[in-house]
Amino acid sequence: MLLAAKVGPAWIKASALVSATGTCTWPYVREYPGRGLFRGEQVHSASYRSPDPYAGKRVVIVGGGNSGAQILAEVSKVAEMRWVTLERPRFLPDVVDERVHVERATERYRAEREGRKKLTRAMADRDGGLVFDDGGLTVGEYVERWLKDSVRSTVRLSTYEAYEYMTYPHIVPALG
Fold first, then answer.
1. CA dihedral sign of residues 51, 15, 11, 18
2. H helices, E strands: number in the chain
3. What does the alpha-carbon distance between residue 159 and residue 74 come to, in Å, rounded to a whole number?
4. Mind listing the pLDDT tens digit of every residue in the chain (176 residues)?
5. Which pTM value belongs to this model?
């Protein structure tokens, strides 16, 4: 059975319907008379992946936003198309497109997660006494920094002074 809808003075029929209303995060599919009788496929733009399943079909795109326009541009190459909007379409620049937002948010989440993993690993290495890359420091500069930043707060003052006595006149000049 085909979906039939009156658009202005004309009736249009389709075997597939892509609903591009709502947002990617909050898809919205309207109720309409006869929806339960429609035997074609109804897909929200949030679930759309490619035009391939619509090849050779009659498709109606519902919704006047960027998602509807992008899907129309893709599906129109492989299917007979109709585009239905309540109002004249208003397009946002591509940088505001939801897919771009989702991709950027995913990249940011992955970077933060990777950063946390690296920080946790570096802290564990530090606590275990392992050395990790500290930029362009010489070995002597690194030992001085390690002594001040890591050792000073973890030992008694007399022990720290003994380490200083050995480090500055003997170890640092030898290591460079």
1. negative
2. 5, 6
3. 72
4. 456 666 667 776 776 655 556 666 777 776 777 777 877 888 888 888 899 999 999 888 887 777 788 888 889 999 998 888 877 776 666 555 667 777 877 888 888 888 777 777 776 666 665 554 556 677 777 778 888 888 888 888 888 888 888 887 877 777 66
5. 0.41
Q: Token digits for 136?
A: 């362009």
Cβ-in-10-Å burial (0-12, 13-18, 19+) of 98 comes to middle
Q: Which two tokens stand for residue 139?
A: 């070995």
The ranges assigned to domains in the chain are 3-91, 94-130, 133-176
Joined tokens for residue 86: 């309540």
Q: 3-class DSSP state for residue 27?
A: strand
| Gap between the Cα atoms of 15 and 40, Å rounded | 5
| 40 in Cβ contact with 14 (< 8 Å) | yes
Strand segments (E) across the chain: 3-7, 10-14, 16-19, 41-44, 58-62, 80-84
**Backbone φ/ψ region at 22: left (φ over 0), alpha (ψ -120 to 50), beta:** left
d(CA 124, CA 120): 6
Report which of 99, 173, 101 is spatially closest to residue 143, judged by C-alpha positions.
173
